[in-house]
Amino acid sequence: MDDRVTHAIGPRLRMRLPELTARERAILVHLLENADQAGHARITEIASRFCVSEALIVKLAKKLGYSGFKALKTNLQLYGLSSTSDLFEEVRAEDQPADILRKLFRVSIQALEETLAVIDFDEFRRAVDVFARAAGRDIYGVGGSAAIARDAAHKFLRIGIRCRVADDSHIMAMSASILHASDVVLAISHSGRTSAIIDAVRLARERKATVISLTSYAQSPLARETDICLVSTARSSPFTGENAAARIAQLNILDALFVCVAFRDAQRSNALLAQTMSAVENKRR
């Protein structure tokens, strides 16, 4: 099994957590937190620990796409011993500032490595094609995702590509309602469950616009409503949550999207980049 496949095991399982029942989720979280020891896990011990039947654990393994509990724990062990799984360390109140800085950097490095492992390169190529050819471009995001949307719009403006950013449910709905088949929407939501985004995306699809989602959950309601899904991933932490590190990964995905679109006409992009940079040069002191 190559490194990319191994690194993807943990994040792909974490993506499934919202679909599980409370007991199933508790079992999977326990296995993920002890992935390096998963190969030694006994189904009887897991069943006793969580007061469930062995049959439920086998059913969970199959629900997650494995032939049984043995296959699940074997794959978890491979992930647990990989170079990315041990990058995550929980931040603690007694940590020194330097320790917190190191831990948070390592969490971001893990998010980048694991996002690179789970992202579908074919989907990314399709996103580049669609975004480069589009007549109009809307970018939707709420809360922390709105900052990512604005950052993306700023990047594309530098090479002469104007994007409309909406972080308000009314503006999203209004903008989506007047899209055309030649337009594209980039919808950003870490959870993939933000109702304002999903509602706007449904309107956009009714107008035959192409929709690209950027989310951390490939089976989320948003992902199911879109034509192209770009997936990021990150481990959760009580203080920073999942979306802090996920934002780093999402920004990198959008950086790559920007560069690929710019290279479709590198001469024009370089000329416009020089022009827009010149326009703000006198704003610096």
Helix percent reads: 55-70%
pLDDT averaged residue by residue: 92
Oligomer: single chain
Based on CA atoms alone, the radius of gyration comes out at 21 Å
Secondary-structure element pattern, one letter each: HHHHHHHEHEHEHEHEHH
Percentage of β-strand residues:
5-15%
Topology, number of strands: 5
CATH hierarchy: architecture of the largest domain: 3-Layer(aba) Sandwich
CATH-level-4 superfamily name of the largest domain: Glucose-6-phosphate isomerase like protein, domain 1
Structure, explained:
The chain has 285 residues and is of the alpha/beta class. The chain folds into two domains: 3-85, Winged helix-like DNA-binding domain superfamily/Winged helix DNA-binding domain (Arc Repressor Mutant, subunit A, Orthogonal Bundle); 118-281, 3-Layer(aba) Sandwich (Rossmann fold), CATH 3.40.50. It is built from 13 helices and five strands. It has helices spanning 3-15, 22-33, 43-49, 54-63, 69-80, 97-118, 121-133, 144-157, 169-177, 195-206, 221-225, 243-263, 266-280; strands at residues 137-141, 164-166, 184-188, 210-215, 228-231. It has a five-stranded parallel beta sheet, with helices on both faces. Strand 1 (137-141), helix 8 and strand 2 form a beta-alpha-beta unit. The model has no long low-confidence stretch (mean pLDDT 92).
